[in-house]
Amino acid sequence: MTEVFPQAPGRWVIATRESRLALWQAEHVKALLGARLAAPVELLGMTTRGDQILDRTLSKVGGKGLFVKELETALESGAAHLAVHSLKDVPMEMPAGFVLAAVLEREDPRDAWVSARHAGPAELPAGAVIGTSSLRRQVQLAARWPQLRIEPLRGNLDTRLRKLDEGQYDGIVLAAAGLKRLGLGDRIRAVFEADQMIPAAGQGALGIELRADAEQRHPLLWAAVRALVDDRAWLATHAERAVARALGGSCSMPLAAHARFAADGRLELHTLLGAHDGAAGIAPVLADGRAEVRDTAAAEALGREVAARLLASGGSALIAPAR
């Protein structure tokens, strides 16, 4: 017998982390969906393991999946109908029973330099301290400015800014998108262009996660969420995520992948891979690719092609310790 699901519950619930940035993101999606769904849209704020563990880097405690597991549990139990994530926090392999249903219009994907006293890392004296817990940022900073110290920086956006203001760091590197979304763009002293520091896969994009049976269970919600898809962001981020997926990407792999559409309409994909666990003194490898991309399959094919180039250029030796 075919199971019959309700077409519309009395309310729709968005599962979200409780940081200020995560709540902004969820409120943004709530406003977009509120215009498309008849029933009220509410937020279910949750604290994840990733939010609780602040004394160790993500690469040592289970990776970015720690930011989504509790939200997926809420989807599975029916306590929430959808979850909103910073796409770069979403594991490259979606767990069974869940799908990435939408990627919204992308905010600035670049990294931002934040410092009260220094216009950029080039101004820092030898031994000055830069804060970031991203291995991707770490290897790119170390390759360009090896004389600087890079120290771990965990916590939500406000916590990281507070640590900077307390003088624990001479400067920190954050995603420009989060600062801009929270009206903190004036804290950005400079941005790293994508050819100076390649962003993370999915950086600057919001992803909406649903149960895999959402189209059958709640077709009204499915249609409303799918209507929010930004075609260019969807294709670009799928190419980026395919690179990481092909390499078994995790937080212990310093991998950068950024795709953008060129003036001729082709998708350009730029990638970088550093040594496992961000080991200093080992030069990262780079690989690029471009292709005519009109659908998800073509985007992911480009990602796999560029991943193969990374491995062939010396990347296989860099990731060997992780396997």
Describe this structure in words.
With 323 residues, the chain is α/β, with parallel strands linked by helices. The protein has helices spanning 20-34, 49-52, 58-61, 69-77, 135-144, 157-165, 176-181, 214-217, 219-226, 231-246, 296-319, and strands at residues 12-17, 41-46, 82-86, 98-103, 111-114, 129-131, 149-151, 171-175, 190-192, 206-211, 255-261, 267-273, 285-291. The protein is built from eleven helices and 13 strands. Helix 5 (135-144) links the parallel strand 6 (129-131) and strand 7.
Q: Features of this protein?
A:
5-stranded mixed beta sheet; alpha/beta; single chain
Compact description:
34% of the residues lie in helices and 21% in strands. It has 323 residues and is an alpha/beta fold.
Low-confidence stretches: 1-7, 52-62
Strand content: 15-25%
- C-alpha Rg (nearest Å): 20 Å
Helix fraction, binned, reads 25-40%
Strand arrangement, largest sheet? 2-1-3-10-4
Give the CA-based shape. Answer: globular
Oligomer: single chain
What's the main sheet like? 5 strands, mixed
Q: Count of DSSP helices?
A: 11
DSSP strand count: 13
The chain-level mean pLDDT equals 90
H-E string: EHEHHHEEEEHEHEHEEHHHEEEH
| End-to-end separation | 45 Å
> Structural class per helix/strand content?
alpha/beta
Describe the SSE topology:
Elements: E1 12-17, H1 20-34, E2 41-46, H2 49-52, H3 58-61, H4 69-77, E3 82-86, E4 98-103, E5 111-114, E6 129-131, H5 135-144, E7 149-151, H6 157-165, E8 171-175, H7 176-181, E9 190-192, E10 206-211, H8 214-217, H9 219-226, H10 231-246, E11 255-261, E12 267-273, E13 285-291, H11 296-319
